[in-house]
C-alpha cells in the first residue's frame, strides 16, 4: 500500500493540502503522540497479563501496577500446565477436549457446508432466495438463544454404550465411502488435484476420529448424548454450519467464473467442475472459514458449561471461567494470566497469519446481500 | 446427471419440454449439492427451533413449587424418576409473565428482572458501542492514512492485536483489570491521583453521572468493548480509504477546500458504502455480545447491565426454567428480525455503490 502511495505522491505538487507531502515537524510530532497513545491503550492489557504471568514472585493478587516485572520465571506456566483448576485434569486434557470439539465441528461444517455454498453461489433454482434468507437469518440468531431446545432434545437421547459404538462405526463407514466417491473417479481419470487429496485427507481423519471414539471406554452403561463432547459438538454444528455456508458462499462469489465457463464448453459436468476447478480455487476460503469455526469452538463456553458435568470432558473455556470472578477463589492471578496466554496463543498466531484473508471475508459477508 | 448441466446459471437449459420438467431439471443438480446440508440443518437447526416454539408454550424445566421436573424422563434404571412429570401446556403465560414483569415471576428470578429496562439497556448498549467503534475506527484509519507518518506499518500491525485474541480471554482479563482491590485500572488511576483508588467498578449501584440511569459497570464494559471493537472498523475504513483516488483531494484543494471540508465532503461520503454494512455487522454482534457482559459484570449490579442473551442463558443455567427461556429466545428473535431485515435491506442498497 505504501508503494501505491509513493507512486501517486510523485504527481502531487508541493504546497497542496492534499495527502502525499512531507509533514511539518509539529504535525509529525502530534500524530506520533496520538499513535503512541493508541498503541499504549492497545498494549496495556496485554502487557499487564504478560508481565503478571512471568512475575517470579508468583503473585496471588497484584498489589501494585508493574508492567515490567523484576526478573522473570515460568513457574506460573508450569503450575497451570500441570493442574489449572481444582479439578484433577491437566492442561493437555482440557486442550485436547477443546481441540476435539473445535476441530471436529470445523471439519464437519466445512465438509457439509462447501457443497451447499457452491449450490447457492453458482446455480439459479426456485426457492434459492428463501433458502439463503433462512440460512442468513440463522447466523443472526444468537447461539445462546437455542440452548434450551438443544439441551432438552439432546438430553432425551440416551443409548447404551454398545449401541452408540455401532452407530459411530456406521458413521465412519459413511464418511469413508463419501471420501472414496470423490477420490476414486479423480484418480481414475488422472485429474486428482490438491483439493481432492485435501478432501480425502479430511474424510480419513474424521473417520479415524469416529472409530477412535467408538472404541473409547465409555463412563457408564447409559450414554447421555447431552453430557458428552459429541453432544456439545452437535449443538455447535447447529450454528456453525449456517455460518460456514454463508461465509463460503461469500468467498465463492468472488471466484471468477471464466474457468468454469471454459470447462462447461469443454463438456465438464457440474461435479467435475466442483471437484476439479472450484474446490482447488477455494482452498484459502476453506482455510479461513475452517479457522473461524475452529476459533469459535476453541473458546466455546455456554454450551459446554451447560451440558457437561464430567470433569474428564471439561474444556479450556470452562477452566478459564473457573479461574475468574466469583469462582476464582484462591487461584493466583499469575496462573490465570499464564492460562489466558496459553489459551490465546494458538488462535492468535494463526489469526495473524491468515489476517489478510479473514478481514477480506468478514467485510465481504456483510456487503453481499 | 453427469452429461448435462441444466442448473448452471451461465448456460441456457436445453429446449424445455414442459414447465414442470424444466423446473425439475433446474432443481436437480443444486438439490444434490444442497441435500447434505439441508438434512443436517433440518435436524440440528430447524427442528430445535420449532421445538423451541413448542417449549415456549409449556412449563418445561424444573417446577420448584411442585418439586417436579420435566427434563429427565428416564432415571439410571431406565424407569421414570419419581419427580418426573410431562411438560404441561400453559398457553401464553410465559410470554405474558416476561412482558408484564409479573411479580411472582420476577421474584423467581431474584427480584431485579424488568423486561423493558433490559430491552432498553440492550439497545442502548448496542448503539453506544457501535457509535464509538465506527467513529474511532474512521478517525484512526484516517490518522494512519496520513502520508509521511513514520512507523505506519508498525502501528497497523499493533492495532490489530485486540481482534486476534479470543473474546472470552479479553472479557476475563478486563474483568480482573477492573477489580476494585487488585485491578490495574484502579492502580493506574492511583498513580495519577497519587493515592489509593478503590472504585467499585462492578458493585457500585448509584449511577456515577446523576440523572443517567447507567451503573459504573456499564462504563467499565463500554471501555473494554471499545478496546475490543474499533480495530475491525479501522481495517474496514482503511480498505475503503485506499480506494479513494488521490485526484479527488487534489481537485478539492485546487478549488480551495480546507482539510476538514475534504474530510466531510469526500472522505466520509466515500467511506459510507463500506462502513454501513460493517456497522450493521457490528450492531448484530454487539446486541448478542454474551462474553463481555457475562464474564465482566455478570449482569450486575442488581441486573442493571443484563442483556437479552445473558438473561436467556441464566434462565436455563441458573433457574432451569426452560419454557420461559424458550419464550425469551422467541422474543429475542422477534427483536432481531427487524434489525436483520434492515441490515439486509441496507447492505443490498449499498451493493450498487460497490466497485
Can you characterise this structure?
The complex is a heterodimer of chains A (369) and B (355). Chain A is an all-alpha fold and 369 residues long. Among the domains of chain A are: 22-73, no CATH class; 96-157 and 225-367, Orthogonal Bundle (MetI-like fold). Chain A is 71% helix and 2% strand. Chain A has 15 helices and 2 strands. In chain A, helix 2 (25-54) crosses helix 15 and helix 7 packs antiparallel against helix 8 (194-215). Chain B contains 14 helices and 2 strands. Chain B is mainly α and 355 residues long. The chains are: A mainly alpha (369), B mainly alpha (355). Chains A and B meet through helix 1, helix 2, helix 4, helix 5 and helix 6 of A and helix 1, helix 4, helix 5, helix 6 and helix 7 of B.
Tell me the layout of helices and strands.
The complex is a heterodimer of chains A (369) and B (355).
Chain A: H1 2-9, H2 25-54, H3 75-82, H4 91-122, H5 128-140, H6 147-155, E1 158-160, H7 161-189, H8 194-215, E2 222-224, H9 229-254, H10 258-265, H11 270-281, H12 283-298, H13 302-307, H14 316-322, H15 333-367
Antiparallel strand pairs in A: 1-2
Helix pairs in contact in A: 2-15, 3-15, 4-8, 4-9, 4-12, 5-9, 7-8, 9-12, 9-15, 10-11, 12-15
Chain B: H1 19-55, E1 62-63, E2 68-69, H2 93-100, H3 103-108, H4 115-144, H5 152-159, H6 161-164, H7 167-177, H8 184-193, H9 216-242, H10 246-254, H11 259-287, H12 290-296, H13 308-317, H14 322-351
Antiparallel strand pairs in B: 1-2
Helix pairs in contact in B: 1-14, 4-9, 4-11, 7-12, 9-11, 11-14, 13-14
Amino acid at each position: 500500500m505504501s508503494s501505491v502511495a509513493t507512486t501517486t505522491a510523485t504527481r502531487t505538487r508541493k504546497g497542496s493540502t492534499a495527502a502525499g507531502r512531507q509533514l511539518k515537524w509539529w504535525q509529525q510530532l502530534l500524530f506520533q503522540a496520538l499513535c503512541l497513545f493508541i498503541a499504549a491503550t492497545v498494549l496495556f492489557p496485554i502487557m499487564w497479563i504478560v508481565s503478571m504471568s512471568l512475575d517470579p514472585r508468583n503473585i496471588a493478587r497484584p498489589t501494585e501496577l508493574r508492567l515490567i516485572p523484576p526478573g522473570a520465571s515460568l513457574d506460573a506456566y508450569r503450575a497451570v500446565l500441570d493442574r489449572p483448576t481444582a479439578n484433577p485434569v491437566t492442561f493437555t486434557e482440557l486442550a485436547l477436549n477443546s481441540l476435539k470439539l473445535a476441530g471436529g465441528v470445523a471439519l464437519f461444517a466445512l465438509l457439509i457446508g462447501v457443497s451447499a455454498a457452491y449450490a447457492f453461489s453458482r446455480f439459479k433454482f426456485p426457492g434459492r432466495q428463501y433458502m439463503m434468507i433462512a440460512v442468513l437469518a440463522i447466523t443472526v440468531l444468537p447461539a445462546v438463544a437455542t440452548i434450551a431446545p438443544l439441551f432438552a432434545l439432546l438430553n432425551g437421547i440416551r443409548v447404551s454404550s454398545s449401541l452408540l459404538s455401532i452407530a459411530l462405526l456406521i458413521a465412519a463407514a459413511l464418511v469413508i465411502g463419501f471420501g472414496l466417491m470423490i477420490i476414486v473417479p479423480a484418480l481414475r481419470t488422472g485429474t486428482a488435484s490438491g483439493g481432492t487429496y485435501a478432501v480425502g485427507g479430511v474424510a480419513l481423519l474424521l473417520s479415524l476420529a469416529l472409530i477412535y471414539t467408538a472404541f473409547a471406554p465409555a463412563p457408564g452403561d447409559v450414554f447421555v448424548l447431552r453430557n458428552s463432547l459429541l453432544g456439545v459438538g452437535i449443538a455447535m454444528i447447529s450454528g456453525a454450519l449456517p455460518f460456514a455456508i454463508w461465509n463460503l458462499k461469500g468467498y465463492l462469489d468472488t471466484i471468477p467464473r471464466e474457468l468454469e465457463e471454459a470447462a462447461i464448453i469443454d463438456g465438464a459436468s457440474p461435479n467435475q467442475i466442483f471437484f476439479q476447478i472450484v474446490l482447488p480455487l477455494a482452498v484459502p476460503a476453506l482455510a479461513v472459514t475452517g479457522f473461524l469455526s475452529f476459533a469459535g469452538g476453541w473458546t466455546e463456553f455456554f454450551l459446554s458449561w451447560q451440558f457437561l458435568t464430567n470433569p474428564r470432558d471439561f474444556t479450556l473455556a470452562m477452566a478459564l471461567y473457573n479461574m475468574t470472578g466469583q469462582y476464582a477463589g484462591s487461584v493466583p492471578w499469575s496462573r490465570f494470566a499464564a492460562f489466558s496466554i496459553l489459551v490465546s496463543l494458538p488462535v492468535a498466531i494463526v489469526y495473524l497469519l491468515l489476517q489478510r484473508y479473514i478481514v477480506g471475508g468478514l467485510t465481504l459477508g456483510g456487503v453481499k446481500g | 446427471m453427469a452429461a448435462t448441466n441444466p442448473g448452471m446459471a451461465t448456460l441456457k437449459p436445453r429446449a424445455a419440454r414442459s414447465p414442470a420438467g424444466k423446473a425439475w431439471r433446474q432443481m436437480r443438480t443444486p438439490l444434490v449439492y444442497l441435500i447434505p446440508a439441508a438434512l443436517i440443518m433440518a435436524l440440528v437447526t430447524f427442528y430445535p427451533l420449532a421445538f423451541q416454539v413448542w417449549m415456549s408454550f409449556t412449563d418445561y424445566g424444573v417446577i420448584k413449587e411442585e418439586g417436579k421436573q420435566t427434563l429427565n424422563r428416564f432415571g439410571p434404571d431406565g424407569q421414570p424418576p419419581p419427580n418426573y412429570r410431562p411438560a404441561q401446556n400453559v398457553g401464553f403465560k410465559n410470554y405474558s409473565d416476561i412482558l408484564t414483569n409479573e411479580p411472582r415471576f420476577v421474584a423467581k428470578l431474584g427480584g431485579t428482572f424488568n423486561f423493558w429496562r433490559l430491552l432498553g439497556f440492550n439497545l442502548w448498549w448496542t448503539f453506544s458501542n457501535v457509535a464509538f467503534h465506527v467513529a474511532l475506527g474512521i478517525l484512526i484509519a484516517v490518522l494512519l492514512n496520513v502520508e509521511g507518518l513514520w512507523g505506519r506499518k508498525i502501528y497497523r500491525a499493533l492495532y490489530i492485536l485486540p481482534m486476534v485474541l479470543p473474546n472470552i480471554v479479553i472479557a476475563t482479563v478486563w474483568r480482573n483489570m477492573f477489580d476494585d482491590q487488585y485491578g490495574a485500572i484502579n492502580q493506574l488511576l492511583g498513580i495519577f491521583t497519587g493515592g489509593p483508588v478503590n472504585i467499585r467498578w462492578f458493585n457500585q449501584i448509584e449511577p456515577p453521572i446523576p440523572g443517567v440511569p447507567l451503573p459504573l459497570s456499564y462504563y467499565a464494559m463500554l471501555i473494554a468493548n471499545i478496546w475490543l471493537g474499533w480495530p475491525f472498523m479501522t481495517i474496514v475504513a482503511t480498505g475503503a480509504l485506499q480506494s479513494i483516488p488521490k485526484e479527488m483531494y487534489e481537485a478539492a484543494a485546487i478549488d480551495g477546500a480546507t482539510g476538514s471540508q475534504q474530510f466531510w465532503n469526500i472522505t466520509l461520503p466515500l467511506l459510507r458504502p463500506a462502513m454501513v454494512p460493517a456497522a450493521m455487522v457490528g450492531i448484530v454482534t454487539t446486541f448478542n455480545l454474551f462474553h463481555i457482559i457475562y464474564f465482566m459484570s455478570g449482569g450486575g449490579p442488581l441486573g442493571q447491565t443484563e442483556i437479552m442473551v445473558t438473561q436467556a442463558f441464566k434462565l436455563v443455567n441458573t433457574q432451569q426454567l426452560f419454557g420461559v427461556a424458550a419464550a425469551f429466545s422467541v422474543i429475542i428473535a422477534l427483536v432481531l428480525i427487524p434489525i436483520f431485515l434492515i441490515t439486509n435491506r441496507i447492505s443490498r442498497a449499498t451493493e450498487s455503490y460497490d466497485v
